Every structure is written in C-alpha cells, then in structure tokens.
Amino acid sequence: MGGLKNIRRPTRAAAAATRRRQDVLFLCVATSARSQMAEGIARRAAPRGVRVFSAGSRPGGLNPLAAEAMAEIGIDISGHASKEISAIPGDEVDTVVFLCAEEVCPVFPARVQRIHWPLPDPGAVRGSHQKRMAAFRRVRTELHLRIGALMEML
After folding, report:
1. pLDDT, tens only, 84-105
2. Model pTM?
3. Which residue has the higher pLDDT, 6 or 93?
4. What is the mean pLDDT of the chain?
5. Residue among 85, 100, 119, 139 flagged as catalytic
6. What's the gap between Cα 83 and its chain centre?
7. Closest CA to 103 of 118, 86, 88, 125
C-alpha cells in the first residue's frame, strides 16, 4: 500500500472560501426603472455571497415611480443611482440579465451567462399617475417572479 497517501478533506471554512461566488448584473439602457427595481428585488432575494449590480449604456436618473412601486413592497431603492456599464467590475460578473424590450440592448463584452428578459419600459408609459403606476407594478411583479427563480439556481 506504499503508493496511497492519506488525503485530508478541506474544512467547511476552506471549502466555502474556495467556492465561486455568483455575481449578477441587470442591464438596460437608461437604468432608471427596470434594472433598478431588479437590483432591489435581487438584493433581497440573493443567497449569501451573491453580489447584485445594475447598469446601463446611457444611464439617466432613477425614475421616482420605480422607487414608489418598490416602496409598496417594502424595498427602498430611493438611494440607488444609475451607473454606466464601465462602473461595474465586469470581470467579476457571472450572469448578465438584459432587460431591454423595445430598445436596442447594451453590449456586455465579457464571456458570461446571458439571459434576456424583454420587459417593457414602464417609464415609457404616458397618462395618469394611476396608469403609469400600473405599468411599474406589472414590471415589478414580473421581475419578482423571474428573480425568485433565478436566485434558486445560484
């Protein structure tokens, strides 16, 4: 039995330290509504160790109706800021979720898992406050369902 060596199993702490973290980026154009809501929902739903980002190719400001819709479900995104893709540590992102529907999706150059959820931009809806909020609530509900499923896979 001279060729066999005693192999030690790594401790739980060592195994956890070597496990690959999953970082998720929600990407759209203006990053004023869909990606901001997705980031808020995902941060609440993400397993331990998962980092969540949002960004866009032409960032604008946070749409106040997105913050209002999220506050209705107890998630505060009022302090979120729209960020350009270059502000995200792209080499650390594992999954990119593209949220564009009517517009041309931004380009993300890194080799990552790519998911496309073509959700309409609720910020593009015109009309009464009630009509506009209904659009934000529909997108929020759809994001909540899809993000729940995504986080279970991580």
Report:
1. 999 999 889 999 999 999 888 8
2. 0.84
3. 93
4. 87
5. 100
6. 13
7. 118
Domains of the chain as residue ranges with CATH: 21-153 (3.40.50.2300)
Active site residue 28: yes
Q: What amino acid is encoded at 8 in this protein?
A: R
CA torsion angle for 36, 137, 122, 93 (degrees, to 10)? 30
Catalytic member of 24, 27, 28, 143: 28
pLDDT in tens, 30-48: 999 999 999 999 999 999 9
Active site residue 105: yes
Sheet holding 23-28, edge to edge: 51-56, 23-28, 95-98, 113-116
Tokens, residue 24:
């998720």
What is the chain's length?
154
Using DSSP, state whether 36 is helix, strand or coil. helix
